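Appendix B, record 7
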Amino acid sequence: MQRQSYEERANLTKHPLSRKLFSLMHSKQTNLGVIANSSKSHEILKLAETIGPNICILKTHVDILEDFTPDFSRNLRSIADKHQFLIFEDRKYSELGEVVERQYGGGLYKVVDWADLVSVHLSSGEKIIDSLSLVGKDKGRGIVLLADSSMEDISCDSSLVAIRWAEKRPDFIMGFECSRRLCLNEGFLHFTSIRKSLIEDTFCSIKISPEHVIGACGGDVILIDDSFLGSGDPEIISREYRNRGYIAYNQY
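Structure tokens (predicted):
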């Protein structure tokens, strides 16, 4: 069965931020996200400015930055608004109660003030959703559940847990970071990565194409590691991934 268009799916979701993401994916004709792994603020800002027109998501790891200041998050937010993409902070929250509330809303990074969506582990139990919601829901933020970590490590149990949580809280849970499609509910998003992984102490590239992620894996958003942009012009390379991914989605 062919999936509905991103424009149609914007009307199926119960999450305002998912509706925004589906809409900008349709209007920009892109399902591409890029994972920014630099430890330098200026490099991430330069990358965001360069590839911004081609992406729907920029995924960050703010806690690896060696020179973080509040100016970085403000500048990144400004670039995201300018080029109409969302910021996905891959924080992988796993604490409970006041601790995770402070991690999300306070501390040095104040993630909730600038990141549209964040990633969340299943390991701490369902109450973590309530804690994060207290901080982020009124600000229009959303969360993505880490349903499985790789093509080689798929847990049926964790996938079922993720689906159950999402179905109970579609107003705050946007979807899943996963290696293959988990459910048929078109209101949820599936984020699937193409990245270089450390396997048996040797770096190698996993040969998964945008077409494979969208077709065989059933992904909605393709996340590519920024190392794939380093061999040439990032704008040109990201545009190629953008075109391939969007064409692939409309073929399935």
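Remarks on this record: Strands lie at 32-35, 57-60, 86-93, 117-120, 142-146, 173-177, 189-194, 196-199, 202-205, 221-225. Residues 234-249 form the longest helix (16 residues).
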